[in-house]
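Attaching the record inline, Q. Sequence:
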Amino acid sequence: MGEKKLSAVLVHVDGTKAAAGRVAFAGALADDFGAQLIGVASGQMAIPVYAPFGEGFVSLQPEVVEAARKQVTDQITAANATFRAAAGTRSNVEWRASEANEPAGFLVEQARAGDVVVVGRPAKDDAEDVMLGVAASDIVLGVGRPVLVVPPGVERMSGKRVVVAWKDTREARRAVIDALPFLKAAEEVFIAGAGDETPLATVQDVASYLARYGIVAKPVVEALTDGRPATALLRIAQRVNADLIVTGAFGHSRMRQWVFGGVTRDLLDHAGIPVLFVH
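Structure, as predicted:
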């Protein structure tokens, strides 16, 4: 995929069926760019607290605490085994884990060591309380690194055809910059706008900007058929047989809950190919 432009790829490892495939995906990406592969997992004890003799008494029996601690240890051990097996014989790998940190917070913290963070999108049959779980929506807006969300079953990305979702916003401009390693390595790049809100002239401007980096990009503006820009973007991606979408992540925090714009949420939930989110 071209010259080295990434130094390290972080991948979140959890207890889902897709975890091994996600590590394989991140490992192949690291190989393509000559980067280090870093696996990350974390968990916290979930101790049941109860008051059998009234509100003023709380029971924390030693065996309950020990069982909760062992559960986290076993989960981290299993995640490490998954990572090591999927990473194979690669020498440039590192494992980072904690048994005392909330998974999303620990992943955000460790992201300082990498250029891109790879996370999965849950499969429909994954339990909601999957061990060590991190939803992309937990980190996209706060991690300060591009987040590559991988759908279940995807273990490789050639990166030959990339669609850049364009809307004239700060997030979209940032996404173009942070995605330059991927755009330089691609064979075809499409700057895609959706609907009348994105004039062709603005998309052409972005294509001209990338040309100064030696990237040949094709401007495309797709009409809206259902009022949802994400549908138009996915239609473009399917038509050009893209294997990566790059987009700004739109949203804000409110009472510590991430609230996403429609395009970001739709791509998080429905894209069948990897999506690189940048905020």
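The first strand starts at residue 8 and ends at 12. The longest helix spans residues 62-87.

More tomorrow.
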